[in-house]
Amino acid sequence: MLRIEHLKKEYQEFSLDCSLEVKPGCVTGLIGQNGAGKSTTFKAVLGLIKKDQGTIRILGKDSQELGPKEKQELGVVLSDSGFSNYLTVNDVIPVLSSLYQKFDRSYFLEQIQKFGLPRDKKIKEFSTGMKAKLKVIVAASHGAKLLILDEPTAGLDVVARDELLEVLRDFMEQEEDRAILISSHISSDLETLCDDLYMIHEGKIVLHEDTDVLLSDYGLLKVSDSQYEKLEKRHILRYKKESFGYSCLTDQKQYYLENYPQIAVEKGTVDEVITMMIRGAEK
User: Fold this and answer.
1) 15-67: per-residue pLDDT in tens?
2) Distance between CA 24 and CA 22 in Å, rounded?
3) Residue 236: its pLDDT value, please?
């Protein structure tokens, strides 16, 4: 669906070098801190900024060769774009009908009603959550094969985020060969949605893993100075000095549970993995 190979973009104080792949039937997450390179990657994929080097293939074609037919099959949400604040949902419907051949008006209105979005109120009067839901509903309502969503849950409360993720799950269930690339700095959103995760830091991918593997096999070892000295370190990805000794990130949690029963081994959450990959030192 989407393959990015060594996408490079240079700015005065920032350098991007990103490779990732989104496969049919999969939801792929791109996670990282604000300023890590998520939006730059998305804008380069969509041709909104010019890449310096690298290749981007979307739906089997070079991104620069996409025609109107292929662009109809993309659904896009960008954090800094949307409809005019002076339009209403009723105003948006004919715009979408003229833009997209496969715009599903009945599905769109069903989702609008389901999530309580007023049809006759100007978008400028919408809450942050209502605006976010509208953008995602639009992206999912015209038969797209690939959704590209940049921080769609930013600024939303827990309930609004859960409702928005429900739209995305419904989108994936409708056809088995659809796919989503979604970025977020809220990792808990992606734990339950994504099949695999790419972690980006300072413009570079520092980790790629299946979400199930990350949640089951990764762990944090909490060890004293003396325990750290005796520890087998070939399965340690990162370590960090703490007041009690060391925290160590591993992708072989079971190995340490079996061979070091005396040390504390905690289940690794996505947040903890991110923190250790960014702040921890390589062994």
Assistant:
1) 999 999 999 999 999 988 888 889 899 999 998 899 999 999 998 888 888 88
2) 7
3) 95
CB 2 within 8 A of CB 179: yes
As a whole number, the mean pLDDT across the chain is 90
Distance, CA of 279 to CA of 283 (rounded, Å) = 13
3-state secondary structure the chain: CEEEEEEEEECCCCEEEEEEEECCCCEEEEECCCCCCHHHHHHHHCCCCCCCEEEEEECCEEHHHCCHHHHCCEEEECCCCCCCCCCEHHHHHHHHHHHCCCCCHHHHHHHHHHCCCCCCCEHHHCCHHHHHHHHHHHHCCCCCCEEEEECCCCCCCHHHHHHHHHHHHHHHHHCCCCEEEEEECCHHHHHHHCCEEEEEECCEEEEEEEHHHHHHHCEEEEECHHHHHHCCCCCEEEEEECCCCEEEEECCHHHHHHHCCCCEEEECCHHHHHHHHHHCECC
Q: Say if residues 190 and 246 touch (Cβ distance below 8 Å).
A: no
> What local confidence, expressed as pLDDT, does residue 41 receive?
93
Query: CA-CA-CA-CA torsion for 183, 115, 72, 172, nearest 10 degrees?
Result: 60
Q: Residue range 245-259: average pLDDT?
A: 94
Confidence of residue 103 (pLDDT cuts 50, 70, 90): very high
Distance (Å, whole) CA 204 – CA 249? 19
pLDDT digits (tens, 9 = 90+) for 211-242: 999 989 999 999 999 999 999 999 999 999 99
Q: The tokens of 56 are what? A: 């981007």
Q: 250 and 235 in contact (C-beta within 8 Å)?
A: yes
